[in-house]
Amino acid sequence: MTAESSFQPLEPALAPPDPSLAPSGPGVWLVTVSASYGAGGSVVAPALASRLGLPFLQRVTTSEGHPAEPGPCDEQLSAEEVKATPVHRLLAHLTQAMPTGPTQSPPSTHHQDEHLRGHGEAAIHRLVAAGGGVILGRAAAVVLGKDRGFHVRLDGPAERRIAQAAAIEGISEDQARERLRAADKARTAYVRRLYRCDPAAASRYHLVIDSTAVPLDTVIELILVAARAHAK
Question: pTM higher than 0.85, yes or no?
C-alpha cells in the first residue's frame, strides 16, 4: 500500500448489527452512499448494511431490483454501469438507427432515458417500501430527496483516491488512474443526463466526508454516529 492511501482493510468478519442503531417504530431506516471512484464506497456501504442489519442495494448491476447481501462490490464500473452511460447508449442508438432493411424506428433518446431512470428507481422504491436499507450509488439521494433517508457523499483528492483504489482493488496506481477517469466520467454523466444535477453537490447530502483523509473503518463509525443522531 502506498504512503498516500489511508485505506485499511476491514476485519473479515464485520461487526454484528448494533441494536441501538436498529430502526424503531414505523419510520423507514434508510442510508444512501454516493462515492467517487477510490473514495471507498464499495467498502463502506456494505459494511454499513452489515452493522445496521439492513439490506444492501448495490450500484446498477445485473441483479437489478434485488437487494444484495452485504459483501464485496467493486470500486470500478460494472458492465451494467457502462451500458447505462450516455455515450454507450448514444452509440447503441446510432447503431440501431442504421438502415439494414425494413425495421421499426429505434426508441428516442428521451424514451431511453425514461426507461433507464425508471429501471434504476424501481429498486430504490422497492427497498423503501420493504422498510429501508443501505443504497450505494444510483443517484439515490437525488431520487429520494433530503426528507427521506440519511444521505452521505464520499470523495477526496484524485491522487489520494487513486492510491486508495489501488489498495482496495489490488491493482497498480496506473490502472487505478485509468479506472478513475472512466468511473468518475460515467457516474457523473449518469446523474447529469438523467437528473440534470451534479452528484458532487454538497447540498444534496447530510454528511460529506473526505474518505481518503482517515481510515475507512473510521469513516464507517462517523456515518453510524451521524445517522443515529439524525434519526433522533
Answer: no
